[in-house]
């Protein structure tokens, strides 16, 4: 099983898209094992996006992600990291495949609604940034049998 950190970014919250975004992830079969409503402060934003420090869009990215509350989630499932990325769509919504969250609800890379971890090491780093171990729940035994064969 893999885990991925998802952020429903400020634009998605402001536009009333928390429900539709969670619905798509939930209906896909990903299991939510952590979820909270927070306002990311600048130090946390800088740590989360440290890999982008120095890029031209970095200051705007930090302003964007700290501008208003977000939902952070941890989802779990087989190949969850790749499945989340494919469900979100390409970083640039104009290039995202129709049917993906970013394509269906957004237009611009600077307002692309949602974050998903891009690999196992990134996921572990990001989950630890936003969640303590005791904030993640266990669904119990055999809860995957309706999703995976
Ligand atoms: P990802 O979110 O699909 O992993 P990254 O390349 O890691 O994409 O970029 C992180 C975030 O930075 C993007 O989701 C987007 O919000 C923002 N971003 C990336 N490239 C640009 C850009 O060229 N202009 C403005 N914002 C950008
Ligand atoms: Mg990324």
User: Regions with pLDDT < 50 over 5+ consecutive residues?
Assistant: none
Shape verdict:
globular
Task: Identify the bound ligands.
Answer: inosine-5'-diphosphate, magnesium ion
Q: What's the mean pLDDT score?
A: 96
Termini, distance in Å? 14 Å
| Number of helical stretches of at least 4 residues | 7
**Sheet/helix structural class:** alpha+beta
Report the helical percentage.
25-40%
Strand order of the largest sheet: 2-3-1-4
Radius of gyration (CA) equals 15 Å
Q: Give helix and strand order, one letter per element, not per position.
A: EHHEHHEHHEH
User: Quick one: biggest sheet?
Assistant: 4 strands, antiparallel
Query: Could you give the count of β-strands?
Result: 4
Q: Hey, roughly how much beta strand do the residues contain?
A: 15-25%
